[in-house]
Design a protein that fits this description.
The chain is about 35% helix and about 15% strand. It is α/β, with parallel strands linked by helices. Helix 1 crosses helix 2 and helix 3 crosses helix 5. Strands 1, 2, 3, 4, 5, 6, 7, 8, 9 and 10 form a 10-stranded parallel β-sheet that branches. The protein has a single domain, classed as Aldolase class I (TIM Barrel). About 45% of the residues are buried. It has 10 helices and 10 strands.
Length: about 280
């Protein structure tokens, strides 16, 4: 087996200050979920986390901010963090995930050292109005087009298990396919009693079938299983790679705990896979 698994880590650099009403998101201030909230994480802490991620084998590191998109102050902060990380870890694939973004904002991020931009469609166009009313699916799609226009690597996917039908799920996958992203994150909805979205959890079998369906539709895209991996797949977690995944998020997520990176590395190596050392492989 010579399949390489790409490891990525995320840093929640601005947490819980979002005014949007996405029914699946713990960072929306409307839902009053009990999470840690802060405007800006200290840059030296972000660099510390980036070093930890690299030491754990991650070759991707994502700078995530809550909120609809970028204003001048937030853009300057992300750029400051990006430059600080790149100064210490020039080979790290640096990803920004900062919501709706214009071409000019994305050019500024690129100039600061950002390599990739993550903006998820989240669901199909028709289902989206059932999970968010404060901004449009089309604005998300346009941001992804902007990412491609400025020459950043595009990372775009979404969340499964929000209550969507199989037809809506397939339509969502086809919309992502039309964007031809370099990486597609596959998140699986994590139940939280404070969230308004009440959807039945996916079975392990159904979740694995989703990965297989996505792999068939996007044979050349990196498929990254991210949020909800541990709670959704449980005893079948090892099967995500055979189903088609070739990347995972290691460490903690935005507002939930993840596996210890050492445990994930041990799992990958035990299964006979290699851990990727470059994102261009």
């Amino acid at each position: 087996m010579n399949k390489s698994i790409f490891l990525c880590a995320i840093s929640n650099i601005s947490s819980g200050s979002c005014a949007e009403d996405c029914g699946f998101c713990t960072q929306s201030a409307r839902h009053h979920v009990d999470i840690e909230r802060y405007k800006y994480k200290p840059v030296d802490q972000i660099v510390f986390e980036a070093n930890n991620a690299a030491n754990n084998g991650a070759i991707g590191f994502c700078l995530v901010t809550s909120g609809l998109g970028l204003d001048d102050k937030k853009l300057a902060f992300v750029c400051e963090a990006a430059r600080a990380v790149k100064a210490e870890l020039p080979d790290l694939n640096l990803i920004a995930c900062n919501g709706i973004a214009t071409v000019e904002q994305l050019k500024t991020l690129k100039d600061a050292g950002i390599n990739s931009y993550n903006h998820n469609l989240e669901s199909s166009k028709t289902f989206y109005t059932k999970i968010c009313t404060t901004h449009s699916w089309e604005s998300r799609y346009q941001t992804c087009m902007n990412v491609k226009e400025v020459g950043l690597s595009l990372c775009s996917g979404g969340i499964f298990g929000l209550g969507e039908s199989k037809e809506e799920r397939t339509a969502f996958i086809q919309s992502v396919k039309a964007l031809s992203p370099d990486t597609m994150p596959l998140n699986f909805y994590i139940q939280n009693p404070a969230l308004p979205l009440k959807a039945a959890p996916l079975s392990e079998k159904e979740a694995l079938e989703i990965i297989t369906e996505v792999r068939a539709a996007l044979p050349h895209t990196r498929l990254m299983v991210a949020g909800g991996r541990e709670t959704t797949f449980k005893s079948k977690e090892c099967d995500i790679f055979a189903a088609g995944a070739d990347a995972i998020v290691i460490g903690d997520y935005l507002t939930t705990k993840g596996e210890l990176p050492a445990s994930d590395r041990e799992m990958i190596e035990r299964l006979g896979y290699e851990i990727a050392t470059t994102c261009h492989a």
